[in-house]
Write a structure and sequence with these properties.
The protein is α/β, with parallel strands linked by helices. It has 19 helices and 22 strands. Strands 1, 2, 5, 8, 9, 10, 11, 12, 15 and 16 form a 10-stranded mixed sheet that branches. Strands 19-18-17-20-21-22 form a 6-stranded parallel sheet, with helices on both faces. Strands 3-4 form a two-stranded antiparallel sheet. It is globular and about 80 Å long.
């Protein structure tokens, strides 16, 4: 039964509190790792565009290992991204003319956190928590040095700072959210602080405070993969949670129980998030079906991700009217811009009149970056045929501890340096700016995941909005489109051979079937069809569904 705390209507006094472990808002600000963070940034931009009251809370990572370096042998290493937060538009948060610092208790240590903010729009502010401050010892200062890197204990510390520190920050600023949106499970420890607050300020029991907290929380799952649904050893969480359990007057077992996986000694952050939220959302319709199968006991809604069109769709293309041949000539200009940009970043150039195929995303095993190179000799023949050459562009970073992913990158680059020399380029250090250029100036967007493992994927939506044609395994968002006469579908079980056949018989001939003025009319019709589809995958549609299905 809820106690004394009716749900508030979303308003400037009671905004949505959007918690996420990463936010992609600027290429120069190394607080995002990939699609999840860029999506979170798009959500904030769309909320600002629609004047939806929202406060977002994340961590100010200090850029350790954030820059991808590729040596002459093709091996990835990492460099630090040294930056000045103020020069990138961040401001200190002040309270009564003093910089705001908050305190988070971790086992026997109080960690001090300074607070930064970035104004996204009139109704949206992003707050970032920073442990790099003189009050902390060296170990504590480095808690948020790197994103998604470190020991299990270091990751738990980050998540406690995010969740508990985030609630304390909002309390200090007298912000009273209408609801809390957890954008995947890492911020879920915010419930420990919410429950404490309800117990102390409203005289609730632990059970009442837990139910009230749950009624004001929604959660979005972004993957079914184990790597994105972390489980932690219980002895660590016992150590870090005992202080909070004692403050609530309960046992540590009772505090951890919502996250315990039955029959194990593991605490699942996803299970905890699901058990402490009143609704859960999936990020595509296919992912929604999979989530209901895996976690059938929870209240699921399906809301396919979308992208912030004013940023990702080129304004000239958006305003072109998609009539006649004008779109094609615009596209050729964008291809030229991409070629110049790639030369600026790599020192290498290519002929932008070629058919340009791009693969660009995190280097994770299930995304199958190497699928294109399974038969290098056959691929070489396809892309180097006289009169219809193909240019391959690839970008993506392996996780700092992913040795197999780094070896995969090295093998791909060695193919590019040898058999595929002159027809393939790897562009290091994928970031928002490079992603924006690739999704504008490519001809084909290649997507090769193992079926059932790409919960949504958003890079293809960006490309779609600019008339870049999809060649994709049907998974995530791409399962929601009829691709006939718009793009090309790949068989997941036989992805490499099917891709080569598709290139030989359909994609390359279609591109080079051009009239006397160099216009490929069938290709152009597919481009127009792609652009017409893109509003279905806009953040505008996504936010409307959030309000109707998740926030109501």
């Amino acid at each position: 039964m809820l106690h004394k705390m009716p749900l508030s209507t979303i308003s400037s006094q009671h905004p949505i509190a959007f918690f996420c472990a990463e936010f992609g808002i600027d290429s120069r600000l190394p607080i995002y790792a990939g699609g999840l963070g860029v999506l979170a940034g798009d959500i904030l931009k769309e909320a600002a565009e629609q004047k939806i009251p929202m406060v977002a809370v994340g961590l100010l990572y200090r850029g350790e290992g954030a820059i991808q370096k590729i040596d002459s042998e093709g091996m990835q290493s990492e460099a630090n991204a040294d930056y000045d937060p103020v020069s990138l538009g961040l401001e200190h948060v002040y309270l009564e003319d003093m910089p705001l610092f908050i305190k988070v208790h971790l086992t026997e240590v109080d960690v001090w956190v300074r607070c930064w903010k970035k104004t996204i729009g009139e109704t949206v502010t992003l707050y970032l928590l920073d442990t790099e401050t003189d009050q902390n010892h060296a170990n504590e200062r480095g808690i948020a040095s790197a994103l998604y890197a470190g020991t299990e204990e270091e990751l738990i510390k980050q998540q406690l700072i995010l969740g508990i520190g985030g609630i304390k920050l909002l309390h200090q600023l007298e912000i009273h959210p209408s609801l809390y949106h957890l954008n995947e499970g890492r911020p879920a420890f915010l419930h420990w602080q919410l429950i404490r607050g309800y117990m102390e300020k409203h005289g609730m029991s632990f059970e009442q405070a837990s139910e009230t907290s749950k009624a004001k929380t929604v959660y979005t799952n972004h993957t079914l993969l184990e790597a994105g649904n972390q489980s932690y050893t219980t002895h660590l969480l016992r150590a870090y949670g005992s202080y909070y359990a004692e403050k609530m007057g309960i046992s540590i077992d009772r505090l951890l129980d919502p996250g315990m996986e039955k029959g194990t000694d593991k605490f699942s952050i996803t299970r905890y998030a699901l058990n402490t939220a009143c609704k859960a959302s999936a990020v595509s319709q296919l992912h929604y079906e999979f989530c209901k199968q895996r976690w059938p006991e929870y209240n699921w809604v399906g809301i396919t991700n979308g992208v912030f069109m004013p940023f990702w769709q080129d304004p000239e293309i958006a305003q072109s009217g998609h009539q006649g041949n004008h779109l094609w000539h615009l596209h050729l200009a964008k291809k030229q811009q991409l070629a110049q940009y790639v030369q600026g970043r790599t020192g290498y150039t290519y002929d932008p009149s070629r058919l340009v195929i791009s693969w660009s995303r995190r280097i994770a095993g299930y995304k199958r970056a190497a699928a294109l190179f399974e038969d290098v000799q056959r691929l070489k023949k396809i892309i180097s045929t006289a009169g219809r050459p193909v240019q391959i562009l690839m970008a993506g970073k392996a996780h700092v501890f992913d040795v197999e992913g780094k070896q995969r990158i090295q093998q791909i680059i060695q193919y590019m340096q040898n058999e595929l020399s002159g027809y393939a380029l790897y562009i290091p250090n994928l970031d928002i700016e490079l992603d924006q250029m690739l999704t504008l100036g490519s001809d084909v967007w290649l997507n090769t995941p193992e079926f059932g493992k790409e919960a949504c994927g958003t890079s293809g939506m960006k490309a779609l909005s600019n008339g870049v044609l999809q060649c994709t395994v049907v998974d995530g968002w791409t399962a929601e489109v009829k691709w006939e006469d718009v793009g090309w579908v790949l068989e997941s079980e036989n992805v490499a051979d099917h891709l080569y056949t598709m290139l030989e018989n359909e994609i390359v001939p279609c591109y080079y079937q051009q009239d006397s003025n160099g216009v490929p009319h069938q290709w152009l019709e597919r481009m127009k069809g792609s652009i017409e589809l893109s509003p279905q995958f806009s953040a505008t549609r996504m936010m409307k569904e959030y309000e109707e299905k998740l926030y109501s």
